[in-house]
Structure formats: structure tokens, C-alpha cells
Design goal:
The structure is a homodimer of 428-residue chains.
Chain A (H helix, E strand, L loop, with lengths): L4 E6 L3 H12 L1 H8 L3 E7 L15 E2 L3 H5 L6 E4 L6 H12 L3 E4 L2 H17 L4 E2 L10 H8 L5 E7 L2 H13 L3 H10 L8 H4 L2 H15 L9 E2 L7 H9 L2 E12 L2 E12 L11 E8 L3 E8 L3 H16 L28 E8 L4 H11 L4 E6 L6 E8 L4 H14 L2 E10 L3
Parallel strand pairs in A: 1-2, 1-4, 2-3, 4-5, 5-6, 8-10, 10-16
Antiparallel strand pairs in A: 7-9, 7-11, 9-10, 11-12, 13-15, 13-16, 14-15
Helix pairs in contact in A: 1-12, 4-5, 5-10, 7-8, 13-14
GO molecular function (chains A, B): homoserine dehydrogenase activity; NADP binding
Protein name (chains A, B): Homoserine dehydrogenase
Keywords (chains A, B): Amino-acid biosynthesis, Methionine biosynthesis, NADP, Oxidoreductase, Threonine biosynthesis
Amino acid sequence: MSDPLRLGIAGLGTVGVGVLKILRDQADLIAARAGRPLVATAVSARSRDKDRGVDISGLAWEDDPVTLATRDDVDVFVELMGGSDGPAKAATEAAIAAGKDVVTANKAMLAHHGQALAEAAEAAGHVIRFEAAVAGGIPVIKALTEGLSANRVLRVMGVMNGTCNYILTRMQSSGLPYQTVFEEADKLGFLEADPELDVGGIDAGHKLSLLASIAFGTRVDFAAVQLEGIGNITIEDIEQAADMGYRIKLLGVAQMTGRGLEQRMQPCLVPDSSPLGQLEGGTNMVVLEGDAVGQIVLRGAGAGEGPTASAVMADVIDIARGIRLSTFGQPAAGLLAARGASSAVPAPYYLRMALMDKPGALAKIATVLGDNGISIDRMRQYGHTDTAAPVLIVTHKTTRAALDAAISGMDVTGVVAGRPVALRIEQV
Amino acid sequence: MSDPLRLGIAGLGTVGVGVLKILRDQADLIAARAGRPLVATAVSARSRDKDRGVDISGLAWEDDPVTLATRDDVDVFVELMGGSDGPAKAATEAAIAAGKDVVTANKAMLAHHGQALAEAAEAAGHVIRFEAAVAGGIPVIKALTEGLSANRVLRVMGVMNGTCNYILTRMQSSGLPYQTVFEEADKLGFLEADPELDVGGIDAGHKLSLLASIAFGTRVDFAAVQLEGIGNITIEDIEQAADMGYRIKLLGVAQMTGRGLEQRMQPCLVPDSSPLGQLEGGTNMVVLEGDAVGQIVLRGAGAGEGPTASAVMADVIDIARGIRLSTFGQPAAGLLAARGASSAVPAPYYLRMALMDKPGALAKIATVLGDNGISIDRMRQYGHTDTAAPVLIVTHKTTRAALDAAISGMDVTGVVAGRPVALRIEQV
């Protein structure tokens, strides 16, 4: 058996502790599989003395993760601090410069700096792996980069933020409004310190941008992700969508269109009988579509100590086994900048609006839609409450541009109270 | 870019043709991902002149796959002939002896000879990869061997024969009896030349034995798989199971128990709301459970030209990328023979029997169950048809041994017509 592979771990929160536990509890199993022992040699975290339920007294301690990343007794720098910049980025750059391989769970850092970091690592002959950054324990980076390597990828979709899926499914099961369930989730500790990272779709958008790079051979382009959070989803939307056979999910979709790469992270309707529609609670699901393989669905825990540590350690074991791939599946220096396309792919849409109690109101709305080339698949008008009646429309396939034009046109008619809600119905 | 990786392909049926099409259509994409071109140099099949929809005139032809496997211009021998022995095995052995890597879709060969072939390949420093042998296009070998490499695997489950799942779901949706749907499937070309490979669970059992070896670090032991086909499943079982919230699936389960390795491929009841319960038609699903990662579910096409060729080519691209793993995830020479355990894990069972119209009949059955330590969770008696009344019983958790003893005991009472049907209810 070869020499041990030595890990320097920066960040001892939930995931870091999970990694130390796996190293402690599964040493023999992992050595047998990796062909060599794996050992943590040094760690770094905010506080040295906190009780984490795992003994770190035998490990070297560094206050500064940059120092940790460059230690002679570290072969692989395991970055579990988080944050797109600051210490995480500085330490990762230092590790690469010092000739280390890097394993990270940091989607924000890679979404913003993945291209530069990958180029630096690859120029120096080192690898950066990030299975844990996307969909927690689900081996989706591996499935896409390696399992589907013979496919032209057609589309990548995913529910990749468990907190949002928890909120949406809890609203549905309880009938409670968004704000109440949001506060519940906060009390349960499900939300990031900045909740907008979750409910604004930013965290999930980071993940989508990484998958898109691998899928389409393009540079990571998080800025081009169309982001829309779940904060405007009402309990009425959820109930009415359910009534028509749909579920609302914060769904990420990346696909290459004739006009460029489309990356969307937004609330969508999906059929309630589809695997995505049936996904409940905090679980994640990623759907990969390739020209040869068809549709592959992967489902599992998207967060948590065990699942995320499992993904981190899978990357480390890959390195121990001698698996050395380009960060995004092909050399970073050769990745092209994708032209970004904005909702170029037509789809049916769900529209909800409050129609004023005026003669001919519905006819005016229907006319505006028709004028914009949008035909109606299904329409429901509910009884009037006060002065406005809720109206639901499911359109046939149309473009987002035509829909936005129609919504502006509705505004002019003066028969719609407030702004209509428009949600894409994704064909899954 | 490095030299091309040269493939010799034996077998030009559906999968072989799919591989040639991918090599032809995705050459640039694959070269970018693999870091080198991939080319087929030579092929072998039963008939040279058959029109396969793909041009093989530029490739060297060999009548004998053994000759093909040992050609100097072949780096990787791609075995797509099938059959556990005969030419497939001879050519694979010849390839290994001649210093080639091997990629195969042949589950039967590996289930019977995987240990010897892996030992031979590893002793010579070569690899055997077989992603396409299990669950078609789903990258489950990779997910288990690499994605879950940091986990102690707790259980592996799967619906891995699309034909059986087609038959069972078609029975349910149509209300037609087994024999009628079996004949339909035959006419549609869904069945193997020897249908028992499908409906007897043998093909799926081969796959399960390969997954079990990777999951538990044991030698492949197909002989120890408890095999039970779907031929005795009646439309009444399907309807009554549905009535109680279950679906019947040909489900493979492998788990390590205190008494040894349990491998079962048998019809089971699973909750209709579970991912396995919701799996319709010819699709495959594999569920992997690890101590850290929890439950990972993988779903996709289990057969067909594109999906299977996708898996074959993923293995080839892995080799081109320099990924060189032991066949079963750790050196074959170190794999232990598992003690086989037979249904050691207790479970609830579904029991169906025809009860004669005699006073006290039900009491006698209940007594026999009680005498064997089996308690009843739910019971339904239907109206009498002629002289016997269908009775359904769902038991609480019990062992198969206790259940078999109870069934023998029922026989003695003289109140049961025929032999009761007993199906395990797998907790998923």
C-alpha cells in the first residue's frame, strides 16, 4: 500500500466535522478502496476550543487557513469555510500555488472564480474537485462529468435548494402562507444567515452555473443566470397549481439554444406526477438529459453533515485513487464564453391575475393575449371577492418576451388589479 | 493532444451499433473531454454484410473475436457479444492476456466469472469496466464505486429488468392477466430469446450480484442470490396490493446482515408513493443507501441502443482519461467470500390464500400464524366465489422462516385451497 494521502481541512462546521468523523470511523474501508490510507494532518477554523464532538487534539492547528493550505504535510487542501471571496479564495489560491490539490464544497467561490481557479490549478498540474458544492450527497458532478461523458447534453434541471423545496411543500401540505412558513424554516435553522441566498435562488443559481459549465463546455457564467426567488409565491398559486395537476418548484434549468446558453433559476410549474413534482421536503433532485442516454434522474439529500461529507470524501478518495480530471470536465483554458440567451425556449405559462369587476374585462385580457400571439389552453375565473375576481390562465407555448409584452398590455386596459403573476410550466 | 485510444469492438447488435454511432457523431466532443481522440479500429460480429445503418467499411474485420481482442492496433477490447461463456469469455481472457483493457456490457459473464477475470486483469495491470452491464444508461456502477466510496453501504435495491417492470405495470394499468401481457411483451420484442432470463429474475439477479460485490467488498456470488420470478403474480395480487397502497415490483435487494450477505431478487410490495412504487414501464431504478449519504435514488433507461452505448462509452472515456480502478472497487485478490444469508432480515409480508367455506376456517389460520409468532397487521376477507373466499393478510414484521413454517401449518388445517402466495413488503 502506498503512502498516506494527507489532508489539511479548513473549516470545522457541520461538513468539516462530518469529514473528520468519516476519516476516523471508516479508515480501513477507505484505505481498502483508495489503495492507501487517508489522514487529516492539520485543521483550521474560527475557534480552536469549541466542542465539536470529534477529537482534533492529534491534528496540527493553524489559525490562518492560508498557512494551513501551504503546509508541507498537506497533499490535499479541503476548503469547507464557504464564502465567495475572503479567506476561502485566498487559501485556495495559496494551496494551488503551493502545489496542492483542492477539494471544496464552496459553490459561491466557484460560481464567481471557478474559471480563474481552474486555469491556475490546471496550469500547475493540480486538480480542484467540488462534488459537495452541488446537491450535497448526490454524486451529480461525477454523473455529469464522467457518467454522461459520451453525450451531447440537451438539458440539465434541478431542485437544488432544500430550504426552498421545504418551504414550498410545507405551504402546500399546511395551507399556510409564505411568510409563516418562512419564519418556521428560520426557527428550524434551515435558512442561511442571509436568507436571500436561499429564497432568492442565489445558492441554487450558483450550483446551476457549475452544472452548465460541465454540461455545455462553457465558462462558468453565474452573472448570466436569470434569478427569481420564491418570495412572491402565494398559497393561492400553490393551491391553484395543484388544482390543475401541477406543483410549484424552484427549478433550475440550463440548456443550449440556437440563441445561446439559457440558465434559469426560477419558480416553475411541473406536473405533479413527475419525479420533480413528487419531490417533497428538503430533498434535492437533478435531471440530466443527454442525446444518447435520454433522461437520468438523481435524488438524495442536498445538505447535512453526512451527505455533504460523503461527497467531499468521494472527491478525496478519487484523488487518492489517481483520478485527475479537469475541473469542469475539459481543460479550463479551452472553455468558451457562452452567449447568454434569455428565456429563448418557448413554454406554456401559468398566469394569475385579479380582474376588476367591469363589463368586458375578461374579453380585454383575452384580446391582449391574442394580440401578442398567445393562445389560451385553459382558463378559470373564480367568484368575486370585493371588487376583483381571481383569474387563472394556462397558455399554450409562448416566449417570455411575448408574455411580458402581453402583461404590459394588460396594464393599459385598466381591468387588472396589480401585476399578474407569470410562472413558466417546464416540460419535464 | 495524445495519441488516439483504439477500440476493437466485438458484437454489432443494438449496443455495438450505438457505440459506433457515438464514435462517429461525437468525435470532437469526446476528444475534448477525454483529452485524446477515440477511434474504432476493428470489429467482429456474426455477419459482415448485414446493413446496420452505420458504415463499417473503414474498419478492419475479424471473424474471430479472439483474434480481434489480441490485435496490435487495439488498446481497449469492447465486448458486446453477451453470453456467460463461449466466445465472449474466450475473447475477454485473450484480451487480458494480450495486455488490453476491457469494457463489457456482459452481466452474465461477470456474474459467473467476474472474480477470475478481475484477478487476471488486475494481476496484469489492466482494467475491466462494466457500467453498461447494470441498469443500462444509469451510471450506477460509478455512483456506487466512486460516488459513495466514503460510505459503509447499508443496502442496495433496484428494479433492474425493464421487461418485468413493463409486464407488472401493464397488468396494473390494463387489468389483463400475466399470460396475456407476457405474450404482448413477447410480440413487442421485449423478451430475451430465453424469456426465463427476464421473467425468472436471472438477468436482474446477475446485476444485483455485481452491485453487491462493489457495495460490500465481497466476491461476486450469483449462486447465492435467492431468485424468484414474476410468473406467479396474478392480476388479483396486483389489484389487491394496489388497494392496500402498494405496488408489486421485481425488486433486487442486497444487504449485509449479522448472519451474512443477503441477496434477493424477488417480487416485493413497495409503497405506491415511494420512488420505486412510482416507477412505470421499462424504466430502471437503483436505490443506494450509505451510512453517511443516506438514500440516493437513480432512475433512467435500463436498456436500448443509446442508453447502453452511453454507458459503454463512458467506460471507454474513463480509460482514455486515465481512470484506472479495480473492477469491483478494490483489488479483486483481496475480496472475501461472503457467507450467504437467506432472508435473515425480518419484514412484513403480504399473504393471499383461498379459504374454504368451513366453520372456524379463519380462526384456524389466525391460530397458525399466532403459533408461529406472526401477528396480523391488516386482514381482508372477500365474498365467497364457489367454495373458497379470497383472504388477504398483511403481517407485522416476521422472518421468512417463521412464515414458511406458518404456511406449512396452514396446509395441515385443511381449510386453505392451494398454496398461499407470500410476498415480502420491502421497507423503502
